[in-house]
Amino acid sequence: MLTLQTWIVHVLFIFFTTESVGELLEPCGYIKPESPVVQLGSNFTAVCVLKEKCMDYFHVNASYIFWKTNHLTVPKEQYTTINKTASSVTFTDTSSLNTQLTCNIRTFGQIDQNVYGIRIISGLPPEKPKNLSCIVNEGKKMMCQWDPGRETYLETNFTLKSEWATEKFADCKTKRDTPTSCTVDYSPVYFVNTEVWVEAENALGKVTSDHINFDPVDKVKPNPPHNLSVSNSEELSSILKLTWINSSIQDFIRLKYNIQYRTRDSSVWNQIPPEDTASTRSSFTVQDLKPFTEYVFRIRCMKEDGKGFWSDWSEEASGITYEDRPSKAPSFWYKIEPSHTHGYRSVQLIWKTLPPFEANGKILDYEVTLTRWKSRLQNYTVNETKWTVNITNDRYIATLTVRNLVGKSDAAVLTIPAYDFKATRPVRDLKAFPKDNMLWVEWTAPNESVNKYILEWCVLSDKSPCIPDWQQEDGLVHRTYLRGNLAESKCYLITVTPVFADGPGSPESIKAYLKQAPPSKGPTVRTKKVGKNEAVLEWDQLPVDVQNGFIRNYTIFYRTIIGNETAVNVDSSHTEYTLSSLTSDTLYMVRMAAYTDEGGKDGPEFTFTTPKFAQGEIEAIVVPVCLAFLLTTLLGVLFCFNKRDLIKKHIWPNVPDPSKSHIAQWSPHTPPRHNFNSKDQMYSDGNFTDVSVVEIEAANDKKPFPEDLKSLDLFKKEKISTEGHSSGIGGSSCMSSSRPSISSSDENESAQNTSGTVQYSTVVHSGYRHQVPSVQVFSRSESTQPLLDSEERPEDLQLVENTESSAGSFPRQQYFKQNCSQRDTSPDISHFERSKQVSSVNEEDFVRLKQQMSDISKPFEAGQMKMFQEISVADAFGPHTDGLVEGFETVGMEAAVDEGMPKSYLPQTVRRGGYMPQ
Amino acid sequence: MRAQLMWRTLPSLVLGLLFLSTPVMGSCLDKDQELLRQLQKQADIMQRTSMLLNPYIQSQGLDKDGLKEHCRERPGTFPSKEALQRLSRQELLRALNTMLDHVLHRLMALQQDIPKAQDLETVNRAKQNIRGFKNNIHCMAQLLPGSSERTEPPPIGPGTSPSPTPTPDTFQRRLEGCRFLHGYHRFMHSVGQVFREWAESPSRSRRHSPRRGLWKGARRVPLSRGNKRLLLRGQLPR
């Protein structure tokens, strides 16, 4: 009871719930058709029908309906109000594949409300399937395929249908991933015609292909024959027998076959003529095969009448034909090797192994025979392909046969000529050229009959020796290719030797490449000679290992840093080239490329700089300049030599050394002051108390007159006798350095050396060179050092003032007056010197001289020396010379007498290392 | 004369109606020689014991010495070759159709004793071949100028009733099945020979036919739609 109540409650709940939901979800209308599928390009009309209830509720009718497609309002021109509740919309030429169509109403004048919506699917009806075909793989179900036709844009189902006349088979529905083929579920029954067709169907229609009616056995693809085996025959070396097992299809149908075969090392299949295998069989014997050759076979089958399909190829099977006697004599040649045994030669006989198609079996050994002229035959069995034997220098005949299991080949005969045989008759017009990736050799045969040709070749290399390979060609051949393993870019030296009945002919050689390539590296160029406007370049020929071909030409590229590159082609036979028209003093970069027929390769770049001057140009400039310089220098030296006195006077006059200066007391009354200073100690031996110097100028380097010398000697004697000694100044004063001077205190020799002059000491108070003293004073002295010490000994000056009333305002002046007893008449040194000479001789002459000096005092600078000399010549060596000497003596006497009067003598202090400024 | 015409026409109509009772489906070959060749090929296939008998013997454990000798056709189960040769073509086709229906029923019964799927597949393949053979008989019948004058199977001597005799035990049932299949293959061999005779010497077949009348009266009777109602050449009734 409780259960019943519960059930009733549930039912009522569901009922009311459903009712309420239904009311809530109940649309205001609907669209017909509900799920339209429209053909592309066709017209489509939909009708929206409003419900009365809804119309009353919203106070609308069909005229309020508007349509939308994919949320876009459809123009009202496409609407048609059918009646109060229904409105239709029409679309022409539909092109959209999938369209959402909604029916809407506008309520209360502004609220759009969706009434109903549908989805329009567009597409095309299926096309009639074409090209329906079926295949029956043996042991499997039948599979049919077809061309489905155009795209329909709709889900299209293809159904393969098949039936007999009395029975219909289950439909074969295509799978989604293979819509164009289908494999039936049943096993096909052979020899019963089956009718097959395809139905294609989608929402827009159904279409059926053409029916095909066939016997499934005519659509069979058999399984390939299996267990294929190959066997040979000992009786016949040219056949192989094939056996196989047919597939089980042979129980139903007759078969035909394709049998193909090839040699093991070939990739090309040969086929047994189809007419020989056009019937069911399980074996076949293949004929006309090569002996001892491995063949590979395969087989396939199909229905004998050609209906159906070929099976796949069977697995391959191979077999080797039986051996046969070698079909050809091997290639046979020899090499002569030097032998140490006199009268014998070492001959190496060489031969080639026969290729399998000529060996016709496994080679067991070789038989060599040697026959010397008129001697018996010697047999040798050799297992290798060469044999070395020492033979005499006679002519020999060698034969070679090769042996296999079945028999021996024909003999290859070779004549080994005598030692002194001279080979002649070479081949002519030997050529070698690559073609079809082979190196061909062509020649013209000699005029005489040739038994065979021997072609030898080797790789030319700087790194490895020439190891020749060889091959033999028949005597009728005049063109062949080298059958060795040739490499590209290698230079081959090919030699062709004709072999005549009496021996080999003269060999001819040629170089060739199988395939050329650009050189591995370019030539290295360098300069041999570089000139101002040209450069001679040189290079080495490329080694053959890097040539990779025949060097056809070189190209020299050269350029400056900023200039364009210039290329010059040079013949390959050259190894140097001269670049001309170069710019001087310019850096050039040059490189070189070598070219073969296949291209070139640049060598390293080389730089050089052209010189600024051509060769000899510098010499042409420098040598004259140097010569001119030397000449000028020489002239200058000569000039200086000639004018050395003058130059010396101006450039390096003698500067008196103050450290060696002495004060000479001219006055005989003035006692010498030996203890005046430390320097006087050097001369304090009593020999140097007085200074008496007589200087005699000899104008123009003339020797003094004998009278002068005589008087001078006399003067010396007197002086020695009166004073016991005399002190002469060894050096000359600055103004008389070039003059010969004679010092009274010198030895006789020195007197002779200075025989031109009688020197007397001169104290220059007029300054050094161009310094002009304020007051001209002079005194007899051995030193040329100016007397500046008056400042240090003022007491001496005072003494002078006291003793000489006629002294001037300057102490030095007084001092000199005291000593010389004469007035200063001129500031000029020359005047001073000259007047010094004159004053002691004659007052009149002095007056006259003073007048002259006043006249010439102005042009002092230039004419000083000249004037001085003129005067010296005129006065000093004039008729008053004797008087002058006497005057000197007088003064000297006075100095000696006045030795005890220190006031009359002004000592001088000599500063070490120099002299005091004036 | 009129009665004679009726007598000749009636069997063809009956035979035609008999085969037309099957639903109209795919078309038959309209080339009698080709169809006859197919029948020969089918008979050649169906006569092979490897197609049915040997697998059955093996599956039933009858492949033992001593047992094979007992696996011999029980006389009368299938008509002899001579009996078949005596039949007219229409009669032969009708007899074959009937006999093969019996074979199908019997094979369905034998399937119950075959546990292995592989052997069942063999049996199914044999049944499919028999149905295909029946299809070709149907098509051949449509090509023949006349049909059997009787709906009953023709009297073809012993073996007209191949229905199995109820056997008490399994071994006997297997042995009977073996004997039946042996007879079936022998029967198909005979059928093949008869068809070959048809192709080689149609006149000889007619000579051996006890009912020459069957070959008469049937003259260009239109058959089903797919066929062009061609008569076998040289086999027109006299």
Descriptive notes:
The complex is a heterodimer of chains A (918) and B (238). Chain A is of the alpha+beta class and 918 residues long. Among the domains of chain A are: 29-123, Immunoglobulins (Immunoglobulin-like), CATH 2.60.40.10; 130-218, Immunoglobulins (Immunoglobulin-like, Sandwich), CATH 2.60.40.10; 222-320, Immunoglobulin-like, CATH 2.60.40; 331-513, Immunoglobulins (Immunoglobulin-like), CATH 2.60.40.10; 525-610, Immunoglobulin-like (Sandwich), CATH 2.60.40. Chain A is built from 15 helices and 48 strands. In chain A, the strands form 12 sheets. In chain A, strands 2-9-8-4-5 form a 5-stranded mixed sheet, with no helix packed on it. In chain A, strands 12, 13, 15, 16 and 17 form a 5-stranded antiparallel sheet that branches. In chain A, helix 8 packs parallel to helix 15 (881-897), helix 10 (794-803) crosses helix 11 (811-820) and helix 12 packs antiparallel against helix 13. The N and C termini of chain A lie far apart (170 Å). With 238 residues, chain B is mainly alpha-helical. Chain B is 57% helix and 0% strand. Chain B has helices at residues 2-20, 32-46, 53-60, 81-86, 89-111, 117-143, 170-200, 202-208. In chain B, helix 5 runs antiparallel to helix 6. The longest helix of chain B is centred in the last third of the chain and has 31 residues, at 170-200. Chain B starts with a helix and ends in a 30-residue tail after the last helix. Chains A and B meet through loops of A and helix 2 and helix 6 of B.
